[in-house]
Amino acid sequence: MPSITDVYNQLVSTNGKLDQVNANLVQETLATNNVNAGVQAVNTTLVHGFANVAAGMQVVANEVYLGDQILLHLSQQTDAVLCVLEQISKQTCELVNQASRQTALQERMASDISAVRDLTERANPAAALERGRDEELRARMERCCPDEPVPPPCHHEPCDRPRPLTVKLEPPAVPKFDDGSPQQPR
Questions:
Q1: Region Disordered: which residues (predicted)?
Q2: How far is residue 60's CA from residue 68's CA, in Å, rounded to a whole number?
Q3: In this structure, is residue 58 part of a structural domain?
């Protein structure tokens, strides 16, 4: 049977081993705490990174929205310009056709009027003198009391135009990243 000394020595040896196990446990706990701190740092970095990405996406969404608004406005302006050009084209064509007809008529009329005037003045010299006096009288009356001006035949009708571009930077909000942790005041 073992003696008390043997039991005591065995207890001292076991106690030393327990102290060693305790020291190892303390080291493992410290190492685990260091790993936990590293994981927490990585998690914090990820949360901030996702927040930065979300903020960047909001900026991009704002710029895309602004670009869409500008494109819509330019498209509306282009429609208005095309309408004005169509009106100009139609009116120009009508003017060219009318001018062509009028030019031909005026050339024939000038020739005919000149011939009639020559014949009339030769046949009726007294009437030609009277006509000259009438023209002078008409000119004086026109200076005194001119005729009402004839309104122009063409009336411009403006096309519909888009309203001026007003940019509202209120595009749909980009969803915010939620890491599941309680919100911290900033």
A1: 144-186
A2: 12
A3: yes
**Max CA pair span of the chain:** 178
Is 90 inside any structural domain?
yes
Distance between CA atoms of residues 27 and 19, nearest Å: 12
Task: Tell me which residue has tokens 């670009």.
Answer: 67
More confident residue, 183 or 22: 22
132 or 164, greater pLDDT: 132
CB 36 within 8 A of CB 145: no
Does any domain span residue 163? no
C-alpha–C-alpha distance, residues 170 and 10, integer Å? 79
Residue pair 170/93 in contact (Cβ under 8 Å)? The answer is no
Q: Please tell me the total count of domains within the chain.
A: 1
Tell me whether residue 86 is in a domain.
yes
Q: What's the gap between Cα 22 and its chain centre?
A: 71
CA Rg value for the chain: 52
- DSSP 8-state class, residue 3: -
Alpha-carbon distance 150 to 108, whole Å? Answer: 25
Single pTM value for the model = 0.45
Q: Is residue 46 over pLDDT 80?
A: yes
Domain coverage including residue 10: 4-104
> Which tokens hold the place of 100?
């062509």
Q: What is the pLDDT of residue 161?
A: 75
d(CA 10, CA 139): 148
Task: Bin 180: left if φ > 0, else alpha if -120 < ψ < 50, else beta.
Answer: left
